[in-house]
Amino acid sequence: MTDPTSLPNSVSQGPDDRGFFGIYGGRFVSETLMPLILDLDAAYRQAKEDPAFHAELADLHKNYVGRQSPLYFAERLTEHLGGAKIYLKREELNHTGSHKINNCLGQILLAKRMGKTRIIAETGAGQHGVATATVCARFGFPCEVYMGATDVERQAPNVFRMNLLGGVVHPVTAGAGTLKDAMNEALRDWVTNVEDTYYIIGTAAGPHPYPMMVRDFQSIIGQEVKEQIMAAEGRLPDMLCACLGGGSNAIGLFHPFLEDKDVQIVGVEAAGYGLDTDKHCASLNAGKPGVLHGNRTYLLQDPDGQILEGHSISAGLDYPGIGPEHSYLRDTGRVEYVSATDTEALEAFQLLCLTEGIIPALESSHAIAEVIKRAPTMDKDQIIVVNLSGRGDKDVNTVSKFLGKGSLAE
Amino acid sequence: MEKTRIDTRFAACKAENRAALVGFITAGDPDLDTSLEIFKALPKAGVDVIELGMPFSDPMAEGVPIQLATQRALAGGHTMAKTFDMVRAFRKEDNETPIILMGYYNPIYIRDPKVFVKDAREAGVDGLIVVDVPPEHDDELCLPARDAGVNFIRLATPTTDEKRLPKVLANTSGFVYYVSVTGITGTGALDADKVAIAVKRIKEHTELPVAVGFGVKTPEQAEAVGRNADGVVVGSVLVNAIRDSLDGEGKATEKTVAAVTDIVKGLAEGCKRAKA
Ligand SMILES: Cc1ncc(COP(=O)(O)O)c(C=O)c1O
Description:
The complex is a heterodimer of chains A (about 400) and B (about 280). Chain A is built from 16 helices and 14 strands. Chain A has helices spanning about 35-50, 50-65, 75-80, 100-115, 125-140, 150-155, 155-165, 180-190, 210-220, 220-235, 250-255, 285, 325-330, 340-355, 360-375, 395-400; strands at about 20, 25-30, 70-75, 85-90, 120-125, 145-150, 170, 195-200, 240-245, 265-270, 290, 295-300, 335-340, 385-390. Chain B contains twelve helices and nine strands. The longest helix of chain B is centred in the C-terminal third of the chain and has 19 residues, at about 255-275. Chain B has helices at about 5-15, 30-45, 65-75, 80-95, 105-110, 115-125, 140-145, 165-170, 190-205, 220-225, 235-245, 255-275, and strands at about 20-25, 50-55, 100-105, 125-130, 150, 155, 175-180, 210-215, 230-235. By secondary structure, chain B is an alpha/beta fold. Classes of the chains: A alpha/beta (about 400), B alpha/beta (about 280). The interface between A and B is large, with 37 and 41 residues. The structure holds pyridoxal-5'-phosphate.
């Protein structure tokens, strides 16, 4: 592990050719998938150099997604907390309601370039599944989404949305039936259908080049924030904050700021019932380095190397791993990783509803929860930018159950 | 590297004019005692080389049969230490049958790969098959294994093209495991003609024996595959036999061991006929 005091001069240059960020990342996949991963790497590198690829993506961002997403000054939340100025990066206003579409558009264009004819994906909260089904409909691809059976139940509205968009949802009953199991099943599909299938991974994790590629597609978030905050405030923010499932919305916001050493960066993991219980998803805070789903990264695991099931009130954070770049940023000390419990997230969820008239996703509510802790301790002229990664319509049933108001469907 | 029991056994099978039967079971399935009993009974029933699965919570390359076997073992509290115990117990009675540990990288990584290969070697393990460590990461486990005197057996697959094959073979020892289908264990139907072509192709690049697995279920398939290959690997059909022998509560019965050895006997006959 790297000593945090020996912070490298540059922490944003990774990964290397083998897909490593420090010791994290890599390509830990079976031989059957290895040639596919190498093909994908080559195709992505080509696309990255091709102005036509970027032009098509930019057009879709503007006219299909509705980018750029606003950077909104949350005046009443700021007043309520009585400290730093809080800006919300409004990714929840994107078409499909979260940041996930940024990545899906990039990858579907790549799939098209590679001549693939069938798309698969894994999903937790269903936001990535919905975004994948959306781009598949838009580009005329058949779409199959693996989703843990537990998540199918707690994110029912998103299952229906995927179906409306022509996506076929496969409930996965193995394990606890959440995101990790869905990812196993998607990998099993891919290894069986190597010729025609493109696997759109939904977060900045998996074998190289996925963590890099997904980060690149999500970095539009941080790039826009940089421009927008300069326009609004004439300076960079003091702090960035985002929630972490696999880490894609966070790395998208963080990456363009990694070399700006005066910008404090905070990632928020799901602490579930609390880090002192075994019901949480805080791999960076409570896990150990290991290898799963194609990459080396911090994982929740037992002393024998068996992967543990995570828990979070939010299905999108319910993953026992984390993208490898975050593991690297943790060890180098560039980013601070904290956590928020289910209860704190629920409180943050309600506060944003009442102060700003915005219903946030439960995932994003974890980031808001950290802002609630920090903003009051900061000066009034300091600035926090928090990533509002998704909207909370999908979560209203879950929230009403937890607030003791029964299911809205009943 | 020095000769291992794997090299000796493949040479012996060749001399006896039959394809080697490589049999897979999951360590600790359905419980530690029964698993050890099955393990010990395999050589006499006709298994030449034993693959002992190290259970892992997330067996990404496995189909339902081995997924379930893994779950049975882990539900019974199986650990890596117990897998090593099984190997040591086996070695007290049999110092010739090669043992290969098969599984995924994480339970090895957490113990430190160098420590793991040393412990494995001392327990009496001859080879490793670790699905998720490709040649691109040979420095992680393959080379430490070789240095410790443990064969690292690599999978070649239908997606391993001519250009990539030398890379896959470079640090492989013991034998080459050809995966007959693109897919997970326990599913696809194997095409013996295609397999024959693939085996010939691999043999142009290596002197090592080639064993073929994924999708072999019957003595007839073993015979067909064994005509061109030096070894035939079976797994899902054996763990399915274990599953089918369990009682209503998922516990082993007096039929469990025989359920496996009966199937093995048939497959071993197929391996003999292959070269007859
Ligand atoms: C709205 C929202 N935010 C965050 C996440 C977590 O994923 P990531 O950490 O990749 O951004 C999800 C995942 O489903 C999500 O739906």
